Amino acid sequence: MGFLRRLLSKYFSRVAPQDENLASISKRIKYNFSNPDLLSQALTHPSLAREQLSPLHTYERLEFLGDAVLELIISDYLFRFYPNFPEGALTKKRSALVNKNILASIGKEIGLPEFIKSQSVADRPIEESEAVVGDVVEAIIGAAYIDGGMKAARKIVLHLFPLHDSTEGSSEDRMNFKGVLIEYCHTHDQPEPIFQTVDRIGPDHSRQYKVAVLLNKDVVATGKGSSKKKAGQAAAKHALSRLSKDENRIEGMESA
After folding, report:
1. Annotated catalytic, 67?
2. Residues 187 and 130 occupy one common structural domain
3. Which of 39, 90, 118, 123 has the most CB atoms around it within 10 Å of its CB?
């Protein structure tokens, strides 16, 4: 996989000068590029090719790659989160998460239009087009894949896309919170969580189990259930909630 990325990198040359705004974009997507010119290229609309650049130095090729990478990441997430869903249901959920409206909404939410580089058009700025904004989101994902591999692309996708919203209205028995917690830990450079049964309460016919989730030997959450599996799922759900709150609190301190 590393060889493939190095090969692809040869075709995405360093074409744009360092942009002081790239640091702002990197902060918003929670990823710092080793090669910031890839991010600059992902923000460059093809209209500039007629004035300054080769068409190969705009976002179009990165968008092509990002589209495929995004679909794989979302498919993998849904496959793990919904272990009992058939193919048709998974496809429906993926379509609800990966479409032009969602992409444009995400791009506008992080303020992409002000950073998109395009030919000046007075009556209708190119960078305000929803289709363009959505394309740039995919291009950024493609650029991250070239820069840091699937791990980098996945980190951006899991940060930007409303994946948790896709679980609303679903039966919790069908949700794989343990799988999502493991994915979260991998993405955030955390060790794989350990699940330990710490207590059993009640007679055999109505026994309750208590399971703890450990990260770095520290208990981060516990959960109870009528089986070890259900208790583990509850513990994983509580751990995800706590980790998410801790992350938001840290981000708030950094931006203060």
Report:
1. yes
2. no
3. 39
